[in-house]
């Protein structure tokens, strides 16, 4: 088994991807105009139980576009998790606004909803909950704070396609939500993203700003009244996306099944712990993250990852906290505060191979290899 390298994630492309892409190419519709763009958007919106979906070129663009569509700009503050991908903070910075960090919960690894209110100022305009590794945030608590302070909510659902919180799909519990369709996501177009919303006003803003602010209802006279962005998705990428959404529930089930297998082998191993699923929710297990206790396991996460790689098993370390990002310090973000949970996750966490189509025998091999490294 060790002679075959097991990547941390491979896309599953076993549906109508080739059929739809070939059709797009054969008909000549390869740019952002074409039937697959609208079909993909409509089907994804339906999957998320929202009215509208707007496809874009990547997940970061989806975040930025969503913020612009909400009217976020210079002088505003947006509360984000400290434990997340830097794209979340960068997207806020693109607008001229300031990201404000909140530490993670020690159980779910999501934003600590109990600490959000302490970070709110007169400049705060929005909260950006991120459903880390496919585990939904406590949206009831977040929405309660947002309503109390009249704040907007932008869900970052980049890692959580099909996840559910108390019967509601992620992406349907906010003013607007952003998804990534990068190749390692549960649903992919290779590169791509989407913004979804129930608001007609936000939807029109998304369409307007993503296409260099061409008028939505007037003639294309090449007079641009606002500064927009070229964030369109091609018909070819949308063709892949449509084929992926057709099998969304299957891919979701496979990821959950893989996670259950990992837990069967590893949850009782001293020194290894998993995140706790949000109560009354469906965690879609984008990645199978584990947290190592070096004292109990006998080795640190970096050493373990290096040893796994020698055995042909790929892995990835967790995010580095926003408060430790030199780029954000240069931007002027407040970097001080207690982010002890994030620091622990960064130091001791990594995720194991998590492809939807990962065979059960490989999960067994990965788990047994990891256990064999324990001192």
Major sheet = 7 strands, mixed
Shape: globular
Strand order of the largest sheet: 1-9-8-5-4-2-3
Order of helices and strands: HHEHEHEEHEEEEEHHHEEEHHEHHEH
Q: What is the averaged pLDDT score?
A: 97
> Beta-sheet strand percentage?
5-15%
- Alpha carbon gyration radius: 21 Å
Give me the CATH superfamily of the largest domain: Type I PLP-dependent aspartate aminotransferase-like (Major domain)
Terminus-to-terminus distance = 23 Å
The number of domains? 2
Low-confidence parts: none
User: Got a strand count?
Assistant: 14
CATH topology of the largest domain: Aspartate Aminotransferase, domain 2
User: Based on the structure given, which CATH architecture of the largest domain is correct?
Assistant: 3-Layer(aba) Sandwich
The proportion of residues forming helix, as a percent range, comes to 25-40%
Q: What structural class do you assign from the helix and strand content?
A: alpha/beta
Give a brief rundown of this model.
The chain is an alpha/beta fold and 375 residues long.
Notes on the structure:
It is built from 13 helices and 14 strands. It is α/β, with parallel strands linked by helices and 375 residues long. It has two domains: 230 residues, Aspartate Aminotransferase, domain 2; 125 residues, Alpha-Beta Complex (Aspartate Aminotransferase, domain 1). Strands 1-9-8-5-4-2-3 form a seven-stranded mixed β-sheet, with helices on both faces. It has a four-stranded antiparallel β-sheet with strand order 10-12-14-13. A three-stranded antiparallel β-sheet has the order 7-6-11, with no helix packed on it.
